[in-house]
Amino acid sequence: MSKIADRKNAKGAPLSSPDKKWSVVLMCPDCRKEPPNIVEDFASGDLVCGDCGLVLGDRIIDTRSEWRTFANDEGDDPSRVGNAANPLLDGDQLDTVISRGDGGSGLARNLNRTQGRTTAQKHERDLVQAYKEISSLCEAFAMPKSIIDIAKGLYKKVENDNLQRGKNNDAIIAACIFLACRQDNAPRTFKEICTLTKVDRKDIGRTFKFLKTKLGTDSGKTSSNDLIERFCSNLGLDQETRRITNILTGVAQDIENISGKSPVSIASACIYMASHLTGNGRDAKDISRIAGVGEATIRTTYKILYQNRKVLLTPEILREGSTAKESNLIGP
Ligand SMILES: [Zn+2]
Predict the structure, then answer these.
(1) Dist. CA 43 → ligand 1 center (Å)
(2) Phi, psi (degrees; rounded to nearest 5) at 179
(3) Domain 224-328 adopts which CATH fold?
(4) How remote is the CA of residue 62 from the centroid of ligand 1, in Å?
(5) How far is 292 from 190, CA to CA, in rounded Å?
(6) How far away, in angstroms, is 50 Cα from ligand 1 center?
């Protein structure tokens, strides 16, 4: 379809020989009109002769802008940009990847593989793999995108500081998710993350502690109050019971024998107490299932709460209009 033809410059004089050598003219082989009336049909990717309709080329690249520009004169018009750079990956992703498919000669596949062996590519692939893992784990637990993004950001930090050396990658991912949940004020317990990621609880705890000190990003302890909201909602408890549970856990922290208990155990026992106070009594078994705390732990913690009920049941809890009544309480 391309033909070398004699070309003339604008004034009609023949072009000098060096120019002539390179003057490749695109011309319809059918009607041979000069100048050719070639139409680019971007919709079908065809190059068509506008006079006779002969298809001259079937693989053209659409070089037009990807959007309509309304600015007439000011600023540049970056007409083609591709994807925005992903801050979670290294560099600006302007590299070229060799395609695998080439019609079955296998040559492209080999080239692709060779290119893939370069370290830069491998690092990026590992990152992408880890991000995929984080996404799928978090989505399995219906965690919001904000948590997923924080977890990915944390993982990137770990990679950048080379903290993952000699550590179990699954544990790193689990710890990142755990940290992300906390940072997004939606904490999960170690046990929940453990169930989610199938990583040993001790492993998560150890990795979490390590990352916390190295990254210095933890926004404080998992407070019982954050857990309560979620547990109460899962147990279908009303607002008043949640209010009371929150007050109870606050006061309970100061009770002597209870300080050794984990925030989750305290929260669970307080939910147990509050639910009975307001007449919405939940079984220790149900709370155990939702909170992931042993039934026996809830009972022993509740026992301490019950012994200290005179301190715990503040006027704020038994205020007028509240459904809470001390007589509703049951013994341990
Ligand atoms: Zn033609």
Answers:
(1) 20
(2) -65, -40
(3) Cyclin A; domain 1 (1.10.472)
(4) 22
(5) 10
(6) 7
Q: Of 188, 269, 191, 276, nearest to 230 (Cα)?
A: 188
Look up the CATH superfamily of 121-215.
Cyclin-like (1.10.472.10)
Using alpha carbons, list the distances in angstroms from residue 265 to 226, 253, 261, 270.
13, 11, 6, 9
Structure tokens at 100: 């695998």
Question: For the chain, which residues make up each domain, given as ranges?
Answer: 2-57, 121-215, 224-328
Other C-beta atoms closer than 10 Å to the C-beta of 291 total 26
Question: What's the CA-to-centroid distance between 59 and ligand 1, angstroms?
Answer: 18
Q: What is the DSSP string of 114-132?
A: HHHTSHHHHHHHHHHHHHH
The residue type found at 289 is R
234-246 pLDDT, tens digit each: 899 888 898 899 8
Structure confidence by residue, pLDDT tens digits, 79-122: 555 666 677 777 666 667 777 776 667 788 888 888 777 756 67
The separation between the first and the last C-alpha atoms of the chain, rounded to the nearest angstrom, is: 92
Q: Which two tokens stand for residue 279?
A: 């007449």
